[in-house]
Amino acid sequence: MVSDHLLQRLEAVMLSRDPVDVHINRLRSSRPCALSASCDREMLIGSGKALVHLGASVMWIPARNEAGYWAAPSMVFHYLRDHSYLPPEQFLLAVEAMDLTRRFKAQEVYLKQIVGHF
After folding, report:
1. Where are the domains of the chain?
2. What is the pTM (predicted TM-score) of this model?
3. CA atoms within 13 A on the CB side of 42
4. DSSP string covering 25-81, please?
5. From residue 27, how far is each of 31, 55, 58 by CA, in Å?
6. Beta carbons of 6 and 88 less than 8 angstroms apart
């Protein structure tokens, strides 16, 4: 189980839009929780204009050594909070280390990475 502090940190990373946006391939709808039929509510984090629909994107979190990225569905927040999922420690350390004042636009990075692969 992850700490409340880490959940709050992940939420801050996920809600950030400028200069940091970790989301790629946003969908116009979200996917339901695949772990439990009792998770039938729409899953959102944030409030007002700062909302994230869980299950509607993939996140790219820069690895601490900046040699790559951790990819995770936005639903990972729900898995951590409600199902006690424990991702790799390096993912958690990358979330903790993410500098929300330094520009990072995951969709731009992703598009550069896939050039020439399709």
Report:
1. 4-100
2. 0.90
3. 8
4. S--SS-PPPSS-TT--S--EEEETTEEEETTS-EEEEE-TTSSSEEEEETTHHHHHH
5. 9, 9, 9
6. no
What the block records as the tokens of 29 is 């709808």
The whole-number pLDDT of residue 30 equals 73
77, two tokens: 């927040």
CA gap 70, 31 in Å, rounded: 20
pLDDT classification of 48: cutoffs 50, 70, 90: confident
Residue 37 has pLDDT above 80, yes or no: no
Q: How far is 17 from 68, CA to CA, in rounded Å?
A: 21
Give dist(CA 15, CA 10) in Å, integer. 9
